[in-house]
Amino acid sequence: QVQLVESGGGLVQAGGSLRLSCAASGRTFSMYTMGWFRQAPGKEREFVGFISRSGSTTYYADSVKGRFTISRDNTKNTVYLQMSSLKPEDTAVYYCAASNLNNGNPYYTPVGYDYWGQGTQVTVSS
């Protein structure tokens, strides 16, 4: 089992940047594919992107492609979400999630993940 704690959220102006971190407990962090999702008020949880166990592969939603970058440091049990050129529509609670090896669901859906953090608020002002 793994516990996830996000940090780094806050208020930023449109066009600005922010980096979120997600720290994981346990010694098997490198065994999990890690994803980022977000949820705005009144909306469903939305896929942002994921990174493979080794960090060699990343995949992003079209809405953030070219603006957001996911990376991970397996020596620090941490995954990052670097967000640039932020827009007001990026305002949401951002969640990191971990996917077990035996989870056969797509990584772009919430059911593809087994563990979730508590979320961190990102607010982009216009």
Could you walk me through the main structural features you see in this protein, from its secondary elements to its overall organization?
This protein is mainly beta. The protein contains no helices and eleven strands. Strands 2, 4, 5, 6, 9, 10 and 11 form a seven-stranded mixed beta sheet that branches. Strands 1-3-8-7 form a four-stranded antiparallel beta sheet, with no helix packed on it. A hairpin with a 4-residue loop joins β7 (68-73) and β8 (78-83). It is globular, with a radius of gyration of 13 Å. The mean pLDDT is 96.
Tell me the quaternary state: single chain
Main β-sheet description: 7 strands, mixed
Number of helices: 0
Model regions low in confidence, pLDDT < 50 over at least 5 residues: none
Instruction: Report the order of strands and helices.
Output: EEEEEEEEEEE
Strand percentage lies at over 45%
Q: What structural class do helix, strand and pairing data support?
A: mainly beta
Quick one: how many beta strands? 11
The coarse overall form would be: globular
Helix fraction by DSSP (H/I, runs of at least 4): under 10%
- Alpha carbon gap, first and last residue: 40 Å
The averaged pLDDT comes out at: 96
Q: What's the Cα radius of gyration?
A: 13 Å
Question: What characteristics describe this protein?
Answer:
globular, 11 strands, about 130 residues, mainly beta
Summarize the SSE layout with pairings.
Layout: E1 4-7, E2 10-13, E3 18-24, E4 33-39, E5 46-51, E6 58-60, E7 68-73, E8 78-83, E9 92-99, E10 115-116, E11 120-125
Parallel strand pairs: 2-11
Antiparallel strand pairs: 1-3, 3-8, 4-5, 4-9, 5-6, 7-8, 9-10, 9-11
